Amino acid sequence: MKKSEDKELKKNITEKKRFQRHFRRFHSKETTGHPSYVYDEKGNVYKVLGVTSASTTNEVLNIKLEKNPEPGNTKPAYVQPKTKEVPKGTKNKKLKGWKLSGKDKQTVQEIIDKNEKKKKPGKKAQGKK
């Protein structure tokens, strides 16, 4: 392979960097400094799920995780059933070492799929005559 082809290949790889899901702690009125699981980005917003130690948030039942994603923390952890969009400009800090267990990844994906389905208008929502 020529040097010019090698540089072009590296350039294409860096331009198409795949988004990696991770945890962040956002500091805003909406997130109140709680950790969030960032599962996607769209324009200048992050799509997130709130993570908490409370079984309910604003009288809504949270979904219990099998294992606390915070390293070294054995207390029960919950994920909120509704996704949120947080502007990228919101003060935040990336949380290192936080991970979801295999079963929790599946649980979280089901919540994301359910929420994303609700946001997209289906054929029924367009109205038939």
Structure description:
The chain has one domain: SH3 type barrels, CATH 2.30.30. The chain is built from two helices and eight strands, in the order αββββββββα. The chain has helices at 3-15, 102-119, and strands at 22-26, 35-42, 45-52, 56-57, 60-61, 63-64, 78-87, 92-95. The strands form two sheets. The chain has a six-stranded antiparallel β-sheet, covered by helices on one side. Strands 4-5 form a two-stranded antiparallel sheet. The longest helix has 18 residues, at 102-119. The chain is globular and about 35 Å long. The mean pLDDT is 84.
Outline of this structure?
The protein has helices at residues 3-15, 102-119, and strands at 22-26, 35-42, 45-52, 56-57, 60-61, 63-64, 78-87, 92-95. With 129 residues, the protein is an alpha+beta fold. The strands form two sheets. The protein has a six-stranded antiparallel β-sheet with strand order 6-7-3-2-1-8, covered by helices on one side. It has a two-stranded antiparallel sheet with strand order 4-5.
